[in-house]
Specification:
By secondary structure, the protein is mainly α. It contains six helices and four strands.
Length: 143
C-alpha cells in the first residue's frame, strides 16, 4: 500500500519525513495520501517533505521505458517508474525538486528539462505519447 509515505504515519504522535535523498513521484504520493487519509490519518500534522527531494517527472518514466526497451533481451527488469532517470538528473544536478514547485519559474524549468529529455528520447526513437502522463502530472496537488 505504501511506496512513498513512511509507515510511521499510522503511529500517533510520530513525525514522518520524506528526506532530500528520495526521488518522489507526486502522483503516487497523492494516491497514497488519499488512501492514508481515508483511515483518518491527518498527514498535514505528521508528514513533512524535504524541499530538496527530487521529483519524478513524466519524462523520467518515458526515459526509463525507452532505456529498458532498447536493451532487448538484456533487459534489467526495471519497474518503469522513472526512478533511475530521476536519480541520474539528481546526481547530474539537472532535476527538479519539491521546493521548485513553489517557484514562479517552475513551468519554465520543467519545459527546459522536458526538452532535454525529449532529445534523449529521440535518440532512443521513442515516440510513445506521454501526454496522458503529463496531463495527470499537471493537475494541482493538494493534500
Amino acid at each position: 500500500m505504501l511506496h512513498q509515505i513512511p509507515s510511521g504515519v499510522f503511529h500517533k504522535n510520530k513525525v514522518n519525513l520524506i528526506g532530500n535523498g528520495v526521488v518522489l513521484d507526486p502522483l503516487t504520493l497523492k494516491r497514497e495520501c488519499d488512501t492514508v487519509a481515508s483511515f483518518g490519518v491527518d498527514l498535514k500534522k505528521t508528514l513533512f517533505i524535504a524541499e530538496r527531494a527530487h521529483l519524478i517527472l513524466p519524462t523520467h518514466r518515458a526515459l526509463d521505458k525507452a532505456a529498458e526497451v532498447s536493451k532487448g533481451t538484456q533487459k534489467i527488469g526495471s519497474t518503469l517508474k522513472g526512478i533511475g532517470p530521476t536519480y541520474m538528473d539528481k546526481t547530474g544536478r539537472n532535476g527538479l525538486r519539491v521546493g521548485d514547485l513553489l517557484d514562479k519559474n517552475f513551468t519554465t524549468a520543467y519545459i527546459k528539462l522536458r526538452l532535454k529529455h525529449q532529445k534523449l528520447l529521440d535518440n532512443y526513437s521513442f515516440n510513445e505519447d506521454i501526454s496522458a502522463w503529463e496531463e495527470e502530472f499537471s493537475k494541482p496537488l493538494s493534500f
